[in-house]
Specification:
two-stranded antiparallel ribbon, single chain, HD domain-containing protein, GMP Synthetase, Chain A, domain 3, elongated, Hypothetical protein af1432, 215 residues, mainly alpha, HD/PDEase_dom
């Protein structure tokens, strides 16, 4: 994988962990192939943004390395991977990208959100993570059911293959301040009651129509 992505200067121990990722899956997606995809996607985006493609490619390949040892070490895989790579003098940019690709730490460089975006693209592309049609439909229905259970909600639609829930509320029952709270409450309930790859965006729409006639 390091040769395939042209990432050089990795220690043998890090290379061994990268190889171990071939035996790990996440929602049915092979973690090693996912890491290679993220490396290439990160480079493409970095090139478009005028950033250093080689740095992006390196961070992308290494972003999930913590998954190779998260069964042996306590903590989440971004933190585990970051702490492990510190032993091998990885750059602060790569370390921040590994630590922050799930938003666990604040990004201090433009590569971190770029790696996070590439990670999400690879994970959410059709066929990347196996999911039966029945489970997929149930997930969409559950999203709409959760949002529709809040007072003042008129309709809720799961869109973008379940990566966004669009909620329409009654302008008479929900004012602007309440709308923000409802959106937060829906997001919290989705987090508490559902399991899903990536993240789900909650978009709340409150429409007020004013009609007047010129005579």
């Amino acid at each position: 994988a390091a040769v395939e992505t042209n990432v050089r200067g990795l220690s043998n121990k890090v290379l061994s962990l990268i190889g171990a990722l071939s035996y790990r899956t996440s929602y049915g997606q092979n973690v090693l192939r996912h890491s290679v995809e993220v490396a290439f996607l990160s480079q493409v985006m970095a090139d478009e943004l005028g950033l250093d493609g080689s740095i992006a490619r390196r961070a992308g390949l290494l972003h999930d390395i913590g998954k190779a040892i998260d069964h042996d070490v306590e903590g989440n895989h971004p933190a585990i991977g970051t702490n492990y790579l510190k032993r091998f003098s990885e750059s602060s940019i790569v370390l921040n990208a590994v630590a922050g690709h799930h938003g666990d730490v604040v990004a201090d460089n433009p590569y971190t959100p770029l790696i996070a975006a590439a990670d999400a693209v690879s994970a959410s592309r059709p066929g990347a993570r196996r999911e039966t049609l029945e489970r997929y439909i149930k997930r969409l229905e559950k999203l709409e059911e959760i949002a529709g259970g809040f007072k003042g909600v008129e309709n809720a639609y799961a869109i973008q293959a379940g990566r966004e829930i669009r909620v329409i509320v009654s302008a008479e029952q929900i004012d602007d301040e309440a709308a923000m709270k409802v959106a937060r409450d829906i997001a919290k309930k989705v987090e508490d009651e559902m399991t899903y790859p990536g993240e789900i965006q909650v978009t709340l729409l409150r429409e007020v129509r004013c009609v007047e006639y010129a005579k």
